[in-house]
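Researcher: Go.
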Amino acid sequence: MPNVERHRGFTLLELILVISILAIVAALGRDFYYNYQQGAALDGAAKELVVNLRSARDRAMNGEQDRSWGIRLVNGANDYYEMISTSGVSTSTVATTSLPVGVFFAQPGAGANLEVVFSKIGGTTTATAILLTSSIGSSTVNVNGSGNIY
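Model: Structure:
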């Protein structure tokens, strides 16, 4: 019987098939990762806004600097919000926070500003809903008249 040599290795067809499968899995994984990243940015922005609203309310209820405290939401080319303190005559910006890339204010509308100001000692405000949006969804932060934030 003749001696037949067997070569070990992969055929070109097997290599192309494996590379094609890997490319499909990588493309799907990229989309899932992008959606996860956008969702995390949206959730993080909403949670940070709630923390800052609560901080402003707490400062107002404590009567810090004998002023009312709040948040000014600015919907412009780059959406951001500012923590403000006001005496009724003058308003000071204490801190500015930009929204993450891909996260925008839907409420207040484009080009509009919205101020949520908590009264001294009582912490009350005008009820409002703040809507954050991204390419994959939206998140609403509600503030009721008694100053509760959820």
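Model: The longest strand covers residues 91-98.
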